[in-house]
């Protein structure tokens, strides 16, 4: 019996010890932790520095999508007012977010880096029709930034580095390509910096690369590798 009571009070001791530990939880969604630059959020359709659209209406993204949620129709560019530098442009572009699993295969397949993903994933709908984003919502604005729609919860930094995944370390694992730019410039940003890989060639400020361990260091108890204040 005595042994049982000790175990019982031992549980309280453990609880009281935890009360004195620093709080590691975040009051989401009031407070949000910084997101890694490659997070797969809501898509954007990018434009070149001169404002032209990058999408050429090739439909590769739609073909590769495992959830069958992209609908694209290409149209020949009007000779007097071309929309994209190619022969054709994406005349219709839709993504159904009731089906999208944010796998980013569409981003991988796109030959012109037209479709990428922002870091904003907090958005909801009240009807099926609202869940289908059209080109009007997906295309970046005149500053090259994602449009912030009223039903989306954008926080500081969510619209930065929206094509962060493009700055991969080294294509096909070939280290000689690490740190070399192999993508086109973007409206409002110019040529994005390459993301650092396993070598010293990295510019975390330019790429927005954030170590979550570093950001959370002060909040994590010492037994998890942080500092206790
Ligand atoms: S992220 Fe994946 S599921 Fe979503 S549209 Fe792209 S390919 Fe389809
Ligand atoms: S987003 Fe890219 S892959 Fe999709 S239709 Fe446009 S150019 Fe082709």
Gyration radius over CA: 23 Å
Main sheet overview: 3 strands, antiparallel
String of helices and strands: HEHEEHEEHHH
SS content category: alpha+beta
C-alpha end-to-end distance: 39 Å
Instruction: Tally the beta strands.
Output: 5
Query: Which residue ranges are poorly predicted, with pLDDT under 50 across at least 5 consecutive positions?
Result: 223-229
Q: List the ligand species.
A: iron/sulfur cluster
Q: Kindly state the percentage of residues in helix.
A: 10-25%
- Helix count equals 6
Q: What's the shape?
A: globular
Strand content: 5-15%
Rounded mean pLDDT score: 82
For the largest sheet, list the strands in their spatial order: 2-3-5
What does it look like?
By secondary structure, this protein is of the alpha+beta class. The chain is 17% helix and 11% strand. The strands form two sheets. It has a three-stranded antiparallel beta sheet with strand order 2-3-5. The C terminus is likely disordered. The protein binds iron/sulfur cluster (SF4) (2 copies). One iron/sulfur cluster (SF4) binds next to helix 3. The site of one iron/sulfur cluster has 14 residues, from helix 2.
Topology:
Blueprint: H1 2-19, E1 43-45, H2 60-64, E2 70-76, E3 88-96, H3 105-109, E4 115-117, E5 132-134, H4 135-138, H5 204-207, H6 212-215
Antiparallel strand pairs: 1-4, 2-3, 3-5
Question: Could you provide a short overview of the structure?
Answer:
The chain has 229 residues and is of the alpha+beta class.
